[in-house]
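Morning!

This is the sequence you dropped in the shared folder:
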Amino acid sequence: MTSHAVEAPETPFWTPSGDSLVVKADNLRFLKTLPSDSFRLIYIDPPFNTGKVQTRQTMKNTRSTTGTRIGFKGQTYDTVKGVALSYNDSFGDYWEFLEPRLEEAWRLLADNGTLYLHLDYREVHYAKVLLDALFGRDCFLNEIIWAYDYGARSKKKWPAKHDNILVYVKNPKEYYFNSAEVDREPYMAPGLVTPEKVALGKLPTDTWWHTIVSPNGKEKTGYPTQKPEGIIRRIVQASSAPGDWVLDFFAGSGTTGAVSHKLDRKFVLVDSNYESIDVIKTRISSIKSSSNVQFREFF
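The structure's back. Tokens below.
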């Protein structure tokens, strides 16, 4: 893994013949420097426009003779707070912010490429109308519902426990989709199918039941709104092949890069948040054969 200072403006910042790249940058400015038709897969998980500041703070228990927490075999511990990671998820004009970035996504997709746009109920209906106009209605492939179960439960309405992922292809006659490579899932009624099918598992539908990132799991980075690798893995497996380029320009905790690297895809991650870049660097560094990933800053 290498780290580089920004190069002269006339030098191409990224080319498809280069290494995987994590770049600290304003994503719109950076996207405009990339060559068209370069990416087989684009996955983006932009801020959901919740109107809140999203914050998550890491906690660590340290053994101490004066600690106030009692653990295994009566040993005492102090709880030490780590760095609080946060970003502002509020926009005065959300679509003035997102629309030009979606236009760049369309330009950057290869002819056989696919865009996955991850939102929730607040903005997804507006996104569907915009993407129908930008891509064409015949380029709409799916709306995936990711259902989970955690957090508070409202007593005044049905609790919202799902995200929406819109899937559009650049060319509806040429797009890449390989369901044979997708991790299968258990049958909900295994008694209704043969033992052979139970052992194999079934292909996912457009409704994905998958837990969130466990607060105590190995995946946890402490970054707000981190998405589980299982969700991104399914997307990368279906809509790209080994050696393909994957782009995520709202990189956050770097799940897209971590999954792509493990599946032998090359990737470009972009985020404007230094905390995000630090989390991604730590995460990618823990993966074997990460020496072909560059970290750079674009001004």
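Headline: The first helix runs from residue 27 to 31.

More detail when I'm at my desk.
O.
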